[in-house]
Design goal:
Strand content: 35-45%
Oligomer: single chain
Radius of gyration: 16 Å
Low-confidence stretches: 1-31
Distance between the termini: 47 Å
Shape: globular
Largest sheet: 5 strands, mixed
Number of strands: 7
Number of helices: 2
Strand order of the largest sheet: 3-4-5-6-7
Length: 153
């Protein structure tokens, strides 16, 4: 039976990386598919942020052709977070998939989000969370991954 049709589940341990120290973070069951892998990564990223005191305001916020995986708030800062999940490094780091086109989509979606809300924020930030699921699973949180200044058309 081809790999894409397999429906077995496996338990993963997601490991949080803090410097060089690895600590167990979450147990979660996932199915072996890219969609489930991405959703699992977003669930883990949301839990990761909540555990650090972030209030999750939106998940999978969509506008036109753009989407923001997680919109959160902490201490006066509104944070737009892109989550990229991989099961291997075969195609590079997950951060590499957040190219100029993807950043532009996120930035335009964030502009719409801000213009449609009446609440003011002291600061806005764009982060990326890399989730690696596999033999050495981990979460890598990149604050201020981009700021919109590199998106000139």
């Amino acid at each position: 039976m081809p790999h894409s049709k397999m429906s077995f589940e496996r338990t993963i341990k997601c490991i949080e990386v803090i410097g060089a120290q690895y600590t167990p973070a979450y147990d979660l069951y996932i199915k072996e598919s890219r969609v489930d892998l991405g959703k699992t990564g977003e669930i883990l990223a949301s839990r990761f942020l909540e555990d650090r005191g972030y209030d999750i305001l939106e998940r999978n916020f969509r506008f036109a052709r753009g989407e923001i995986d997680i919109i959160s708030y902490k201490e006066g800062v509104l944070v737009f977070t892109e989550v990229k999940t991989r099961s291997s490094r075969r195609y590079g780091r997950p951060l590499d998939a957040v190219d100029v086109f993807k950043r532009r989509q996120i930035y335009k979606t964030a502009e719409y989000y801000l213009s449609s809300r009446s609440v003011g924020y002291r600061e806005v930030r764009f982060d990326v969370i890399e989730v690696f699921i596999g033999e050495k699973s981990m979460i890598h949180y990149i604050k201020n991954a981009f700021d919109g200044n590199d998106l000139e058309e």
